[in-house]
Amino acid sequence: MKWRIASVAFLLGSLSTGLTWLSVQPVLIRLLDVVRRLAPPGSAEAEVLARVKGLLPLALGLDLVALTVLAYVVLDLTVGRPLRSTEAVVEQFGRLELDAHLVPAQGGPLLSRMQRALRRMAEALQAEQTLTRSQMESLREANARLARAQTELVSSERLATVGRLAAGVAHEVGNPLSGILGYVALARTKASTPEVKDFLDRIDHEVQRIDHIIRGLLDLGRPGSASLGPVELGAVVETCVRLVRATPELAGVTVELGLEPGLLARADPGPLSQILINLLLNAGQAMGGQGRVHVTSRREGDEAWLVVEDAGPGIPPEVMERLFEPFFTTKGRQGTGLGLAVSLRLAQVMGGRLLAENAPAGGARFTVSLPAP
C-alpha cells in the first residue's frame, strides 16, 4: 500500500514539476536573454547569470522532491491510512472478530460510505452471532435435559422391573431365610469345635447378606406412595448425623453442617432419613473413614435442596454412567448395589430427584431435590 502511494505521489510530483517548468520556461528564457545582452562578458552580472543557469536543474529537482513528499503525505492521510484501517477490519471480519467499534470513521466520501456499510455489516453479523450462540446454548441445555430425562427413564424402567421381580420372589425367599437363620442359631449352640463355629458364623453372615438384599428388593418394589407433608430438613439432618456418627464408616469423619434455618420440604421423614443415612455412609466409605463431609441445605426456586459433599476421590466417568443401576457396586462383596438405587426410588416417590456429580474442588456431591411447600 505505501509503495503504491509513493509511486502515485512521485508521478504527481513529476507531473507538477513538468507543468511548472513548461509554464515558467518562456518567461525565464526571455529574462535570461535580456540579462545576457545587458551584461558584458566577464562582468559580475554574467557570472551570476551562469550560476543561475547551473542552479536550475537543482531547483527543479528540489521542487520535484518537495511536491512528491507533499503528495505522499496528503495521499497517505486521505486515502492510505483509511484504506489500511479498513483492510485490517476486513481481515478481522475474516477471523470472525466482529466489533463494529473497530470500523474507522475517516477518509473521503467513498471510503466513508464503505466504512458505514462495514459497520452495518458488523452489527448485523454480531446480532446473528449472538443469536446463534443463544440458540447453541439453548440446544446444549435441551440436550442435557433430554439426556437426564433419558437416564431417569431408563433407571425408572430398571427399577420397575426389579420391583416386579421383588414382588414375586421376596416373600418366597424371605421365609426360608428366616428358617435358615433359626437353624444356624440352634447349630451354633451345639457346635463342638471352633472350626464348626467359624463355619456357622460364615453361614450366618452370608444369609444375613441375602436377607439384606431381599429387604432392598422389597424397598424397590414398594408402591409409589408416601405420606408427604412439611418436613424441616435441619431437624432430619441433625437426627441422621447423630445416628451415624458412631458407625465405623464415620468414626474418623468430621461432619460439617451448613443448614438454612427453618427450611421446609414436602417429604416423608422416614424415606428421607433413609436416603440421607445412605449418602453419609457412602461418603465415609469413599474417604476410607477419614476426612470431612459437608451437609448443606438451601432453597432453589420451588425446590428445597439437601447437598452431601465429601472429600473423597470423586466418581469416575465409567462409574457415573451406572451409579444408580440396581446391583451395580464398586465395594465388591461389601456392597449390594441397592443403596443408591433405593435412594433414587424413594426420592422419586416423594416427587423429588437425586443427582450425583463431582465437586469442582474434588470429591463427590449428591443433591436431594424435594418440592418446597
Poorly predicted sequence stretches spanning 5 or more consecutive residues: none
Q: How large a portion of the residues is in β-strands, by DSSP E?
A: 5-15%
Helix content: 55-70%
Order of helices and strands: HHHHEHEEHEEHHEE
What strand order characterises the main sheet?
Answer: 2-4-5-7-6
Beta strand count: 7
The Rg value, from CA coordinates, equals 46 Å
Category by helix and strand content: alpha+beta
What's the average pLDDT? 77
Keywords:
373 residues, 8 helices
Provide a descriptive summary of the structure in words.
With 373 residues, the protein is of the alpha+beta class. Helix content is 65%, strand content 13%. A five-stranded mixed β-sheet has the order 2-4-5-7-6. Strands 1-3 form a two-stranded antiparallel sheet. A hairpin with a 5-residue loop joins strand 6 (353-358) and strand 7. Helix 3 (109-189) crosses helix 4. The longest helix has 81 residues, at 109-189. The mean pLDDT is 77.
Show the helix and strand layout.
Blueprint: H1 2-38, H2 44-94, H3 109-189, H4 194-220, E1 229-232, H5 233-244, E2 252-258, E3 264-267, H6 269-286, E4 290-300, E5 303-310, H7 317-320, H8 339-349, E6 353-358, E7 364-371
Parallel strand pairs: 2-4
Antiparallel strand pairs: 1-3, 4-5, 5-7, 6-7
Helix pairs in contact: 1-2, 2-3, 3-4, 4-8, 5-6, 6-8
